[in-house]
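step 3/5: co-fold with magnesium ion
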Amino acid sequence: MSLAPSSTVVLDHRFARELPEMAIPWQGEAAPDPRLLVLDERLAVELGLDPDWLRSPDGLGLLLGTEVPDGAEPVAQAYAGHQFGGFSPRLGDGRALLLGELLDPGGRLHDLHLKGSGRTPFARGGDGLAAVGPMLREYVVSRGVHALGIPTTRALAVVATGREVLRDTVLPGAVLARVAASHLRVGSFQYARASGDLDLLRRLADHAITRHHPAAATAANPYLALFEAVVAAQASLVARWMLVGFVHGVLNTDNTTISGETIDYGPCAFLDAFDPATVYSSIDHGGRYAYGNQPAVVQWNLARLAEALLPLLDQDQERAVALAQQALETFRTRYAAVHADGMRAKLGLAHRSPDPDPDPDPDGTDLGPLVGDLLELLTRAHPDHTSFFRALATAARGDRAPVRALVPDPALDGWLERWLALGPDAAAMDGVNPVYIPRNHLVEEALTAATGGDLGPVERLLEAVDAPYDERPGLERYAAPAPGDFGPYQTFCGT
Ligand code: AMP
Ligand code: MG
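step 4/5: write tokens
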């Protein structure tokens, strides 16, 4: 495959062209002493970009948004959003830029976007900057989420700027370059709706259909079909987070995508101990975005999307509400179906044909009670979530000691008997239950080292999480739960 050298990087500006009311032309702030910290070379090649060129001074200019190719029109995007339930009609990219859209050699379009590139007209009181630690957190955790096969924005690079960023202490600054199917959010639709400009709302919906859900264009009611497609994509996404124990941490409507990709890795974390009430974010006092609340909160966010779309769904607003309600109600069953399939695979029972009807059924193919009882057991014993499913495969191979050590509950053996009677496939379990995830204590250790100038721990952690299912000698510490003296773990937003 031939890779684009500097002069031939082509960035379109479709968003800016089609939705100028939501795009403010802007550029990245110059960095005093740019230094590339990490570059995802595989991603660069997938995008048709030459990694060696990206490492050059011109390449760094692109990754900082200070030197963009001819024809590019970087913009700060406008959006609104419900943050912790309260509506802000104007949020937008306060410290971010959409550089433009990039066509990869396979013909797929991606947003190339920067975070930490300086103040924009949406910055409000913020400084427009980002620190090395949080940008590397997004780099590492999004890479782990991608390796798990979960839809996500991806981090291309983190460039240290040489600028100091003032938080609780003075920290080194950085810019993250990320790639996304798009940066359209529920909040983008809320912004268009709140503007009162119906033509803008319609253009935004058309733009979203073309980019993400093209089948909706030919449906009888394209905008209803768009909404249904977003409901399906988000129901599947949140189910997959639940299956791996991912806690997003700040599921505001501006952090809920139309594409169905995970976006904005702020106070996110993977579960250590299994507990639906788990909250890591230091600002989530009410537990609104707790692990177990995520499906309900995503559905709530989709209700806000429905409200924004109402004028497009039907001229008769009562009928529009009924249509939206009906579509929103499919969230539960869509979520349950993806979650049930995922649990069936995690339990090594994917070879058993799925239950064709949702009612409990007499031949025992309905795994609902088995899964429900397991989740109850886990909630009582709160074992390390990731270790538990690997230990369960060991039990399927005949050794129950590891799983008993994790769940010292007398009810475990009865559950194991029921499960083992179904003939779980241990090898298949190891192909879907990760052994390496970006564990909180490892992420913290790596970010602390990187902030002090040592990128070694970040690189070793990336090596482990890049192949999450493939247990390798020498990586034992990357598979082990957090040490007893780690925690309670808190993550911080907006840094
Ligand atoms: P986030 O928490 O990254 O989803 O951001 C929420 C909102 O706050 C967005 O409008 C961001 O652009 C804005 N924001 C967060 N941090 C900063 C900052 N340091 N400077 C300016 N705007 C910011
Ligand atoms: Mg955000």
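step 5/5: annotate
Residues 91-96, 122-123, 126-129, 250, 254-255, 264, 266, 493-494 surround adenosine monophosphate (ligand 1) (CB under 6 Å).
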